[in-house]
Amino acid sequence: MSVIKFGTDGWRALSAREFTFSNFAVVVQAIANLLVREELPEQPTDRKEVLIGYDARALAADFAAEAASILAGNGIPTAMTRRPTPTPAVAHAIADRLALGAFVLTASHNPPEYMGVKFIPWYAGPALSDITSKIEAEVARVYETQDIRRDDSAVPDTLDPRRAYFDALRYLIDFDAIREAGLRIAVDPMHGTTMGYLDTVLRAAGCDVRAIHDTPSPAFGGGLPDPSEERLGPLMDLVRTDYLDVGLANDGDGDRFGIIDFEGRYIAPCDFISLVTDYHLRDARVAPGAKVVRTVATTHLIDAIAERYGAEAVETPVGFKWVGEELRKGALLGGEESGGLSRGDHIPEKDGIFACLLAAEMIAKMGTPLTDQLRRLRREFPEHRWFRRNLHVDPERREAVMERFRSLGERAQVAGQKVAKVDTRDGVKVWLADGSWLLGRPSGTEPLVRVYAEARSEACQEALESLMLEMIAS
User: Fold this and answer.
1) Which of 7, 115, 128, 280 could cross-link 19 (Cys pair, CB 3.0–4.6 Å)?
2) Residue 8: predicted pLDDT
3) Cβ contacts of residue 203 below 8 Å, gap of 6+?
């Protein structure tokens, strides 16, 4: 039986344990089979080239070369990067080159002992379930047959997506405003793929850039390449000590963002996405009825902002693939609480570099630090207290805990409020009468139940936090 579970983010596993060259070959061959047979849903028949990119992890380039060999063995033309490259740059190259798709060797923000591979289809966004289910079924078949075809003599074309990607960013971002503002910016690529990307475009825009963790390190300097508040202490210190305007960070493959304000404080993704929503919708050029997209776990402050400007907020399940699908349908922008953001005139894939540049543009054009912009937003839309907790639950108790979440709908009151609605499409989400809400979702990979909540008062927040502990009490 195959140990390979191929989902939205592809397949991630411990390197040299589950993620081996033999198992990886099965994944590549399975996808090659589907591409050659033209069996993926809505697969275009006029595209042939498949791109290959990789991050800075140990053996990532070797796995990329193995993918090129197998694809060549199946008659599929390839182009491969020659250095670690951000996932959004590879995704953009799919659209720019009209490619059939791309393999990206990355485990994103996971620890260095992990390796991963994702397949990005021709529309340059995360693979949807109808595609990943086909891939997983074919992986199981190839795992049994071990019918792998290679051409080790084939040499893939060289892929350097920087110029086209930078050109796209110049269209998306107001670099003239950034240049005029003369911003002083700290950048932390976390030893990942955005080295030579984010810092380069900011320097080209006349910014004074101070970079840390900007040397290659397959072990990510002994840390975790995750731009979360817990991991950005050095960036916070640099912003404070050098009196900089902002600190900008990306994860290992560049699809997530982390932002530090001029006072050295972390700006949570929900807060930044809310600022981005307000920044775009207040622009008179935005058509009435524009759609903004958020996942089920992301702050409803976005909904309140959208309502003010006559826009529509669209809720999706957790996972940027759903956000990307709405962007492809014409939504203005979309984001998720884990640090993913993109816009409808860009790729339908989360792009941490774009998000960081957008932060610089907002500081430059608004003429105030992000913290001041956020304070203004909170004055206009008070009492949106979003928070998240990871509750450790033994696997054998996880279903019982989720049943407790489902039973909340039967209570007369939750956190002092009547229950307005219960939604079980993606975990269990409970809406309360005052607009507060609580969401419980089991992790598919860890012994956790992830709980997200938003309270409309301090008292409600305290009650919801107590309720979280009640849910996991034995």
Assistant:
1) 115
2) 64
3) 209
